# Entry
Amino acid sequence: MGGNFAWVMIGCALIGAGASAVGVFSFLRKQALVGDAVAHALLPGVVLAFMFTGEKDIWFLFPGAFVAGWLGLLSIDLISKNSKIKPDTAIAIVLTVFFAIGIVLLTHVQQSNYGNQSGLEAFLFGKAAAMLPADITLFVTVDIALILLIVLTYRYLKLYSFDPDFAKAIGLPVKLIQFILSSLTVLAVASGIQAVGVVLMAALIITPAAAARFFTGRLSHMIILAMVIGIISSLIGVYISSLAVSMPTGPWIVMVLSIIAIMAFVFAPRKGMLQRSRKRKTHQVKIRRENLLKLFYSLEEKKQKQFYTRPQLLRSRRFRGRELELLLNRLLKKGLLQKQENRYGLTEKGRSEATRVVRLHRLWELYLNERMNIAPDHVHHDAEAIEHIITPELERELLKDLGYPELDPHHSEIPGIKGMQR
Amino acid sequence: MNDFWIILEGSLVAVSCGLLGVYLILRKMAMVGDAISHAVLPGIVIAYLVAQSRSSFFTLLGAALFGLLTTFMIEVFSKKARIQSDASIGITFTWLFAIGVILVSAFSGNVDLDQECVLYGDIAYVPFDTLYIGSTDLGPAPVWLQAINLIAVLILLRVGHRGFLITSFDPAFSSGLGIKTDTWHYVLMGAVSFTVVLSFNAVGAILVVAFLVVPPATAYLISKQVETMMAYTVLFGILSAIGGFYLATWWNSSISGAMAVAAGILFVLVFAAKKVFMRQQKKTTANAFDGKLEFRDGVLVD
# Structure
C-alpha cells in the first residue's frame, strides 16, 4: 500500500477521465461498441510485440497494442463502407476475429519456447494492482495528452461529430479529424486496458457518456460530467477493491460506474424514467378528467338534464373497471361535479371547464374542415387528441383565424363564443 | 478418433450458432451474442453457489436465465430509458460481467471456479468428457448435448422461420398483422442464450461469438435470400471448423481460436473475391457503354 496505492489511484482516475471524455464522442456518433472491438483487437498486437522483442516492457507492448487497435478500427470502417454489412456486424466480426488471432498467437507462444510470457495476460485481463509505476507513468502521460488533444481540437471534433457532411462542405480537413478521433479511441482503450481488462473496457467508454447524456444536451457539459463520473467511479472502485485482498479493481470500478449510471437513468430530472412516467401519468389523468367533463356536457346538450346516474354514464361511454368511480370521486373533490343522492352533475366551475374543452374540440374540427379541406366526418378523431393540448394562445389564434365562428362542421354550437370579446 | 470428435463438435456448434446468427444479423443485433456470452457469468457463479456443484445442469440453467435477463435489460434500457441500443448492450453486459467477476473473487476461497475456466474453455478437451451408459462408451457428452441442441434449433427454425423472418424485416408491419413481435424476439433470444451457454462451456466464448457472427456475415455477402444465406452459413461454418482444426495442429495453438481465425480468413476471401468480381462486372458494363463490346441479337460478344 502507501505510495504505490496512491499512484494506482491517480492512474485509474486519469484513465477513467480519458476514456470517459473519448467515450462521449463514440457515444454521440452511435459507435459505442467500437471501444469494445478495439479493446479485443489489441491482443494480437500485444502478443506480436512480445514475440518480436521478447520483452514484456510496456514501452514495447503499448505501440503493438496501438497499431493493432488502429488496424481493427480501419477494418470496421473498410467492411461497413465496402459491403452491405451493417456497422454492428462489422464490429462483431473484427472483435471476434482479431481476438481469436490474438488467442492463437498467445497459445502458440505458450506452447513454444519464447521465454517467460506469463505477464502478458495481466496486460489484458485487468490487474490494476499489478500495474508497475513505469506502466502508470506511461498511461497517465497518454491520458493527459489525449485530454489536451481534445481541448485543443474541441471545435473541430464537435462540428465533425454532429454534422460530418457540413464539416466537409466548409473545407475542414475531415480525414485528419477522423484520424484524430480514431487515435483518441485507440489510445484511451490501450491505456485503460490494464486497469479494467478487455471485457470491461467498453464500460469505461460507454457508461459515463450515457449517464451524462441524461443531465445535459451540451457537448462541453457532457464531456466534463462524463469525466467527473469516470474519475469518481475509478477512485471509489480502487478504494473498495483495496479493502479485501482478493478483490479485483476493474470490476469494482465498473460496478460503481454502472450504479451511478442506472441511478441517472431512473432519477435524472426531466429525462429520467421516473420523471417521464410521472409526467405521462399527470397528462393521462388530465385527459381522462377532460373527457368525463365533456361527456356531461354532451349529455346535457342532448337530454337537457343536469344529473345522471352511474349506469347512465356507463351507457354513453366505455370505462375500464373502477375507472369511472375513481374519476367521479376525484372531480367531486375538485368541485367540478356535484352529487344529488346517486346522481352526478356539473357544477358551474365544471361547466365552464367542460365548455372550454368542447369549444377547443369543435374549433379544431372546424379548422381542419375549413383550412385543411378535410371532410367533416374525418375530423373528430384528430380533434379528440388535440383538444387536451391546445394552449390559450393557440385558441386565440384559431378564433381570430376562423373569425369567431359559432357552428362547427357538424352544425353543433361552438360554446362560449357569443359573449367573447373580439 | 479424437480429431473426429473435435471437428464434429466444432461443426455442430458452427451450424446451430450460425443458423441463429443469421437472424441476429438481419435484426442488426450482432453484438447481442457477445453480450450474452459475457453477461451469463454471474448466473453460472450463482448456480454454482446454490447447487454446490459444477453439475452442468445447474450451470446451464443459471446461465440461460441470465442470458434472458440480459436481453430483457437491454430492452428496458433502450425502450424505457431511451438509451441508444448499442450503448444499452454495452452497459448491460459490462455490468453483469463485473458482478460475475466480483462474485468469483469473493467466493474464490471456497470455490473451485475462475473466470478463465468458465469463459475460455477449449474445444481440445471435448473428447475426454466421455459419456457412459453402463460400461458402453458413447463418445463425448458435449457432442451429444450439442447434437440434441442442434435438433432443437432446427425444429424451432422449421416451426418459427416465417415468424422470425417477418418480425426481423418489418416489425411494424408484423405488429400490424397482429403478430406478437415481442414474443418472437424473446423466443429467439432464449434460443440464442441457451445455445451460447451450452456451447461455450465446451468450446470457449470467443469461438461461440465468432460462429454466431462471422459465417452468417460471410454468407450475407453473397446471398439475396434468407434460405441461401442459411445454406452458405452451414457450409462456411463447417469449413471453418475443419480448416481451424488443421490450422491449429499445423501451427500448434488453441483449436477454438484457430477455428475462429479460419472463419475470419473465409470472410476475407469471400469479401475480396466479391470485390474483384464486382470490379470486373463494372468494367464490362463500362466497356459496353464505350462501344468496345459488341452485341449481336442482344447477346454480348467478346
Notes: The mean pLDDT of chain A is 88. Chain A touches chain B through 59 residues (CB under 8 Å).
